[in-house]
């Protein structure tokens, strides 16, 4: 496989993929993925409902599911390297409407994630500054 792969879109434009991720980039992606906002926001409720053993089991089960998902995406990316996201694979192998829906669901996922991150930052700051209204922290972040 060459260092640069090209993907010709329907419009005829050529986009080039460059493989420039270094070890430090991969380490930061891994840290950001494993220590996310959900760990701080949701782990307390999970432990309260399921107990420590149930929380550990549920995190292990979800981790296994994410492992299989990422392995599948890695196989697809190695087989067909494109400059789009996984919605490109849905369009090619299932249906164009399915790929379209995947793309919008992915956008919606990150729109909600940004809102959750703002609320989590607000909750953390309210711990140290209880007299300041929470909406101020959300506006600042």
TrEMBL record:
Instruction: Provide the alphabetized UniProt keywords.
Output: Amino-acid transport, Membrane, Transmembrane, Transmembrane helix, Transport
Q: Where in the cell is it found?
A: Membrane
Stored InterPro entries: AA-permease/SLC12A_dom, Amino_acid_permease_CS, APC_YAT
Question: Any idea which GO molecular function terms this record carries?
Answer: amino acid transmembrane transporter activity
Stretches assigned to the Amino acid permease/ SLC12A domain: 25-141
A cellular-component GO term for this protein: membrane
Q: Where are the transmembrane segments?
A: 26-50, 56-79, 107-129
Q: How does it sit in the membrane?
A: Multi-pass membrane protein
**PROSITE patterns per UniProt:** AMINO_ACID_PERMEASE_1 (PS00218)
Write down what this protein is called.
Lysine transporter
Organism this protein belongs to: Proteus mirabilis
């Amino acid at each position: 496989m060459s260092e640069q792969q090209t993907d010709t879109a329907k419009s005829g434009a050529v986009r080039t993929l460059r493989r420039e991720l270094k070890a430090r980039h991969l380490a930061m992606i891994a840290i950001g993925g494993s220590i996310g906002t959900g760990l701080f926001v949701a782990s307390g409720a999970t432990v309260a409902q399921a107990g420590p053993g149930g929380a550990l089991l549920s995190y292990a089960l979800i981790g296994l599911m994410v492992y299989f998902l990422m392995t599948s995406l890695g196989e697809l990316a190695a087989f067909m390297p494109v400059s789009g996201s996984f919605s490109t694979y849905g369009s090619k192998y299932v249906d164009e409407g399915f790929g379209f829906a995947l793309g919008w669901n992915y956008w919606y996922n990150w729109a909600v994630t940004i809102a959750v991150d703002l609320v989590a930052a607000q909750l953390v700051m309210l711990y140290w500054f209880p007299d300041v209204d929470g909406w101020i922290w959300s506006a600042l972040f």
